[in-house]
């Protein structure tokens, strides 16, 4: 019995020394919520662990046993840094490139473009990168929030809800400046947009024809509209409403002087003006139609959208993000429209 005690006493003493050293470490860190070991402490813990042949699973308390065994790796192996891994330099450079090449883009717009390219990164990380580089996002405008009842109506009819509105763009002709009118429709559920050709005379016959064209567009997308939101503009005639009602679509008129009630249409018009049309002076209807056509193709097929309910995705149904291939930049309208894609291998 005495011989057995003498044989196992050194191992028993080493275990006590290991536990005592960890108690000492913890006393020095009473106010710390997390333990970060120093190189000297790791060396001492490893030395004591070696005395018990590194069988420390039941006595190593300050770190996980897996962490302890990683310390024993041969020199030259890179230990894992504490905390979250660093953002790859290639991703940081892309964030800076997107911000410098597209001055009107904010954090969410850059986030959407990166997600489209198969790059995983958080909004906070993008914000931190741009702040370090001195880039700041374009501030959002104050918005008036519609009532909860109206919001509930919108959310419960998303997939079958269409909204429409007019917008104007000045055209400079030999006779002076003349406003051109465009009628825009948006399917709220998918955010896909239809724009009419521009006209100087949005009379009843023209508006009715655009309603027919929009109805055909919805049929091609396989969308059945149960409700159409519009304001009380007098250009929306009885014939316009009758065409939609005959197809089973209920007309929902917004209250007077309440543009926020038609927020999806207003937002889409604001985007096309701010990000595209405000950069151009148009000299003919054909010129404006060409710009709108390029924008519409970009908006419906390449632009990552920022609505929470559509998860910042491209509207094209067959689009799948990928992290394979070289990143290329595509520009339209002299660089006013800009997006990125991966070149097929």
From TrEMBL:
GO molecular function, one term: nucleic acid binding
Pfam assignment, any one: rve_3
Domain of life: Bacteria
Entry protein name: Integrase catalytic domain-containing protein
Gene3D superfamilies: Ribonuclease H-like superfamily/Ribonuclease H (3.30.420.10)
GO biological process terms, semicolon-separated: DNA integration
Cited InterPro entries: Integrase_cat-core, RNaseH-like_sf, RNaseH_sf
Positions of the Integrase catalytic domain: 142-329
Naturally occurring in which organism (per UniProt): Pontiella desulfatans
């Amino acid at each position: 019995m005495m011989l057995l005690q003498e044989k196992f006493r050194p191992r028993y003493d080493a275990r006590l020394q290991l536990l005592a050293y960890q108690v000492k470490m913890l006393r020095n860190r009473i106010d710390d919520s997390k333990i970060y070991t120093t190189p000297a402490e790791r060396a001492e813990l490893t030395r004591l662990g070696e005395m018990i042949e590194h069988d420390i699973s039941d006595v190593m308390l300050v770190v996980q046993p897996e962490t302890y065994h990683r310390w024993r790796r041969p020199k030259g192996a890179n230990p894992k840094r504490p905390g979250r891994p660093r953002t790859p330099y290639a991703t940081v450079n892309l964030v800076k490139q997107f911000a410098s090449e597209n001055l009107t883009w904010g954090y969410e717009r850059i986030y959407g473009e990166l997600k489209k390219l198969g790059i995983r990164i958080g909004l906070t990380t993008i914000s931190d990168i741009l702040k370090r580089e001195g880039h700041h996002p374009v501030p959002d405008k104050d918005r008036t929030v519609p009532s909860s009842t109206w919001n509930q109506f919108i959310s419960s009819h998303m997939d079958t809800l269409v909204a429409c509105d007019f917008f104007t763009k000045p055209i400079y002709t030999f006779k002076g400046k003349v406003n051109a009118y465009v009628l825009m429709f948006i399917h709220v559920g998918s955010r896909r947009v239809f724009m009419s050709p521009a006209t100087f005379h949005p009379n009843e016959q023209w508006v009715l024809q655009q309603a027919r064209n929009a109805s055909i567009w919805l049929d091609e997308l396989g969308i059945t509209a149960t409700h159409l939101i519009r304001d009380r503009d007098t250009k929306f005639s009885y014939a316009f409403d009758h065409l939609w009602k005959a197809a089973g679509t209920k007309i929902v008129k917004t209250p007077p002087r309440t543009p926020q009630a038609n927020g999806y249409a207003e937002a889409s018009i604001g985007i096309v003006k701010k990000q595209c049309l405000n950069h151009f002076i148009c000299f003919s209807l054909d010129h404006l139609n060409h710009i709108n056509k390029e924008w519409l193709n970009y908006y419906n097929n390449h632009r990552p959208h920022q609505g929470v309910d559509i998860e910042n995705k491209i509207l094209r149904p067959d689009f799948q993000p990928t992290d394979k291939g070289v990143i290329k930049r595509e520009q339209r309208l002299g660089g006013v429209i800009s997006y990125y894609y991966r070149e097929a291998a």
